[in-house]
Amino acid sequence: MSFLVNPFANALSSLTWEGFFATARIIIIILDVALFLGIIILIWKAWEFRPRLEENFRGTGEDEELTFDHKAILSQWKKLHNDAASAPPHSVTLAVIAADNFVDTILKGMGLEGDSMADRLQKFDPREYHTLEGLWKAHKIRNQLVHTPGFEISEREGSELLKAYEAFLKELGALE
């Protein structure tokens, strides 16, 4: 047994601190490179699972009807509602802000131009879209939530605002 321990003990006793740190440094560099490559591979693999709201609607031309990926939009809308129900009233406030951003993203995806959501909403004819007035009201309250310190809404008001966003999306044809 001592013949096995002695070579190991001799190797340890002959190792200098400089040699130890040089070896440790090489091992750490190899681990860093391996971890970096692992992160790159994970990002590459996860890329297919990213949310693709921009791809949830497709227009093929000015004369052709705009089509939506109803399944993806409905899935994201349901997630927004679940988040709203998680911890009212603050979650409802955040859901109203998220719903406004959601609708604005859809409007941008439709090709509507403008610097703000208000600019894009002005492109709609209120005689053609009956839910547009409710959407304008919801958007104005969302702006107050974001820009006015201390402005709050009740859970019931938040629920009504979410219904206004949902009604507009249904009338637009994005939600079925």
Summarize the structure in words.
The chain has helices at residues 2-14, 17-46, 70-86, 90-109, 117-121, 132-147, 155-172, and strands at residues 57-58, 67-68. It is an all-alpha fold and 176 residues long. It has two domains: 2-49; 53-172, Four Helix Bundle (Hemerythrin (Met), subunit A) (Up-down Bundle), CATH 1.20.120. Strands 1-2 form a two-stranded antiparallel sheet. The longest helix has 30 residues, at 17-46. The radius of gyration is 28 Å and the shape is elongated. The model is unreliable at 53-61 (pLDDT under 50).
Order of helices and strands: HHEEHHHHH
Number of helices, where a helix is a run of at least 4 consecutive DSSP H or I residues? 7
| The CATH class of the largest domain | Mainly Alpha
The main β sheet shows up as:
2 strands, antiparallel
Helix content: 55-70%
Ranges with pLDDT <50 over ≥5 residues? 53-61
From the alpha carbons, calculate the radius of gyration and give it in angstroms.
28 Å
Span between N and C termini?
Answer: 78 Å
Write out the strand line-up for the largest beta sheet, numbering strands in chain order: 1-2
The dominant shape is: elongated
Q: Which class of secondary structure composition applies to the elements?
A: mainly alpha
Number of domains: 2
How many strand units? 2
* Integer average pLDDT: 80
Beta-strand content bin: under 5%
Write the CATH fold name of the largest domain: Four Helix Bundle (Hemerythrin (Met), subunit A)
CATH architecture field of the largest domain:
Up-down Bundle
